[in-house]
Specification:
The chain is an alpha+beta fold and about 725 residues long. It has 26 helices and 27 strands. The protein has 4 domains: about 25-155, 2-Layer Sandwich (Beta-Lactamase); about 175-275, Beta-Lactamase (2-Layer Sandwich); about 290-455, Alpha-Beta Plaits; about 475-720, Alpha-Beta Barrel (TIM Barrel), CATH 3.20.20.
Length: about 725
């Protein structure tokens, strides 16, 4: 900081000849003055070699003298160039000209300014911070003749101050608790978040030994181990049970970071503490939701298959057998239709409880959906044991249920399959038990049926459909329709989603829901998926060649496609062969496609993202994505499922859900696409909650390529009525 009391007397020498400026004025790096002024005596060397900029200026904003340091500060080649170039200090130098007015007021009132800070332009147009110390020099009549002072570039200091201010702001406002601890483990500072987290005032924490763990929860020495690891490696992170001021424990994510300079021992440690009790509980709830039927609290299809596979592996190691029962509740539809869905739900809960009660603890009892249940009996090793289990269940279900004030008799049709003779995989066993149940359901004289390979009518039908689907691929019976997506803000069609259809020679147009699952099961999905991708990309390029203004095309990936190890190579090859720009292709996948193996799913998404394509989650809200997982996904957009859009305008809950999803997407930087938009009211609501894009029957049903092109041209030209969308 310059010394405001140190002044260089640069006052004009009245004896100087204006026509004879100092010979040093024209040398690079020397002091420059206006004609009539001259630096004299022993001050010249000090003036020229000073580290700080030194100047004299007129009150109206012209430089009279400047030294080389000032020229360097302001980015001029020489003092002379500075004086010639800066003829209006307020207008040319100060970023805020009003600061020059403040400078002059201080001079008028006090005759001096100290530590006057301002932002100024350098010669190259860049902006720096300076501080000035100056005084005004008055004549014998008291009038101000000129200002003289010093200038220092404080840009680095201001940046450092801003950095410190930002760090202090983070420390004060971050949601995680932070403690600054010295090497002796004495707490030196805590932030408000930690005070709020543990419920103790800062005065009771600062100056005392670090004591955050709940006793008898994580075992002795865990803090010592963590501290030693932080000292050696610089950082330790993990989970531990901490305690609040009142002693109650909570699960916390902890980290200890050593603060050191160079290779010296740590001078401090930064300890962060975040309460993850609710998050862990939420994750457990999500896991339970993903694996259990919410109505009956029995394992769902996913968990049944997982536990059956585990039981089969154990049986294989022990060279043992196991039994699978597929149960379908007779008469349930009549209860549901006659007494209502509430009575039907109550009956299913009673059935689940009785089924659980009449089986053993080691048996797996689950609900596949609707009125279908499965029992996996790992200790029932032969047909007689399987038959006895089926008979016991049927006997227990001979007793009535009391639902909605009525006695209801319900029985099961039961199919029985055995491992290993009736199937080598969980899917095969469940499928074959289902086939046996179908036979039992059709034959009222047989209450339960064991699977036999001769009874495959349902499998035969499946095989027929599979063969037809294979022929459909060969005969080019699969085609694409396209549904436009409209930008909510402008009302223009941005792109289209490619949707596959099967033009069956007998059944007509078959929707994907009726054959994609079969294609996945029989291994045809890879062929169909690649063909769909090629056709959609090629069609997009044809639209572009025809001058159709579309930003991109989106294509769905089925769950089985997403799990294909060759997916990334296939998509890369298609884009290269067709010639589409990666940014024009958007791939849509469902939440369920990522639920099997999240780590693998994220790796696949990142590989796809590396190709340059866009990624979106379809049917968002119908799966079980956690916030922690969602924010880690490298996606561009989420598509809100039509089931939530359908309720807009009538269901406050659905509107709140859609608003929450939109706000969440805004925080995470995702686009939001609403699918299934059918009414003007829905579009208006979506506009007000800042949904980015709309898709649905309000705009258009899926149409073929030519109709889509015609629709886009008419729509974007304003030839189609679009009340709330076109003027958004």
């Amino acid at each position: 900081m310059p010394d405001s009391n140190r002044r260089v007397d640069l006052r004009a020498d009245p004896r100087a000849d204006p026509a004879q400026p100092d010979a040093g004025d024209h040398r690079r790096g020397s002091v420059a003055t206006e004609p009539g002024f001259k630096v004299t005596g022993s001050f010249r060397r000090f003036f020229e070699n000073a580290i700080e900029g030194i100047y004299q200026t007129t009150p109206d904003g012209r430089y009279l003298r400047a030294n080389p340091a000032l020229a360097r500060v302001y980015g001029f080649a020489s003092p002379a160039a500075l004086i010639a170039g800066l003829t209006d200090i307020a207008g040319q130098l100060y970023v805020d000209p009003a600061r020059r007015d403040a400078f002059k007021r201080a001079m008028d009132e006090d005759g001096v300014v100290r530590d006057f800070e301002a932002q100024v332009y350098r010669a190259d147009g860049s902006v720096i911070w300076i501080t000035e110390n100056a005084r005004c020099v008055r004549g014998s009549d008291g009038a101000i003749q000129y200002y003289e002072g010093t200038v220092e570039d404080i840009t680095a200091r201001k940046a450092s101050e801003e950095h410190i201010r930002l760090l202090a702001t983070v420390f004060e406002t971050v949601s995680d608790g932070i403690l600054i601890v010295d090497p002796a483990r004495i707490v030196r500072a805590v932030n408000p978040a930690y005070v709020a987290l543990v419920g103790a005032p800062a005065a009771e924490i600062v100056g005392r030994a670090l004591d955050i763990l709940a006793p008898d929860k994580d075992g002795p020495g865990i803090l010592d181990q963590a501290w030693n690891a932080a000292e050696v490696r610089g950082l330790w992170s993990g989970e531990a049970t901490c305690r609040r001021a009142q002693g109650d424990p909570f699960l916390a994510a902890l980290s200890i970071c050593a603060v050191r300079e160079d290779a010296r021992p740590p001078s401090h440690f930064v300890v962060t503490c975040a309460d993850i009790s609710q998050r862990r509980m939420h994750e457990q709830n999500l896991w339970h939701t993903a694996n259990f039927d919410m109505l009956t609290q029995l394992p769902n299809r996913r968990l049944i298959a997982e536990r059956l596979q585990q039981a089969m592996l154990r049986a294989a190691r022990q060279r043992a057998s196991l039994t699978v029962l597929f149960l379908d509740l007779n008469g349930f539809k009549q209860v549901n239709d006659g007494l209502g869905h509430q009575a039907g739900d109550e009956l299913l809960k009673l059935v689940a409880a009785r089924l659980r009660a009449c089986t053993r603890q080691s048996d797996v009892v689950g609900r596949l959906g609707g009125d279908e249940f499965v029992v996996v009996a790992p200790d029932v090793a032969d047909r007689q044991g399987g038959h006895r289990l089926a008979e016991k269940i049927l006997l227990d279900f001979a007793q009535p249920f009391r639902v909605a004030g009525q006695e209801i008799f319900c029985q099961f049709a039961v199919g029985v399959a055995f491992y290993p003779q009736d199937g080598e995989t969980a899917d095969e066993l469940i499928r074959n038990a289902d086939v046996a149940m179908y036979v039992a359901k059709k034959d009222n004289s047989r209450r339960f049926v064991s699977f036999e390979h001769s009874m495959l009518p349902r499998l035969a039908q499946r095989l027929r459909t599979e063969n037809e689907l294979r022929r459909a691929i060969e005969r080019d019976e699969l085609l694409l329709h396209y549904q436009p997506r409209v930008e909510t803000r402008t009302g223009r069609v941005l792109g289209a989603e490619a949707l596959i259809r099967w033009r069956h020679p007998e059944r007509g147009l078959v929707m994907p829901g009726d054959f994609i699952a079969l294609a996945e099961e029989c291994g045809l999905i890879a062929v169909i998926g690649e063909s769909t991708l090629r056709r959609a990309c090629a069609q997009f390029l044809r639209w572009q060649a025809d001058g159709l203004a579309l930003a991109g095309i989106s294509v769905n990936l089925s769950p089985r496609q997403f799990l294909d190890v060759g997916l990334v190579r296939t998509i890369e090859a298609v884009m290269r062969d067709v010639g589409i720009a990666p940014a024009c292709l958007e791939l849509e996948l469902t939440e369920s496609a990522m639920s099997v193996d999240m780590e693998r799913a994220v790796a696949t998404l990142r590989a796809l993202k590396g190709l340059g394509v866009k990624l979106s989650i379809d049917d968002f809200g119908t799966g079980y994505s956690s916030l922690g997982r969602l924010k880690s996904l490298p996606i561009d957009a989420i598509k809100i499922d039509r089931s939530f859009i359908r309720g807009l305008g009538g269901s406050p809950t659905d509107r709140r859900i859609v608003e929450a999803v939109t706000e969440l997407a805004e925080v995470l930087g995702f686009r939001v696409v609403a699918e299934g938009v059918e009414t003007i009211e829905q579009a208006d609501i979506l506009r007000h909650i800042r949904c980015h894009e709309l898709q649905g029957f309000l705009i258009s049903r899926p149409v073929d390529a030519d109709d889509l092109a015609a629709l886009v041209r008419r729509w974007n030209a304003g030839a189609l009525p679009a009340p709330p969308v076109a003027d958004i």
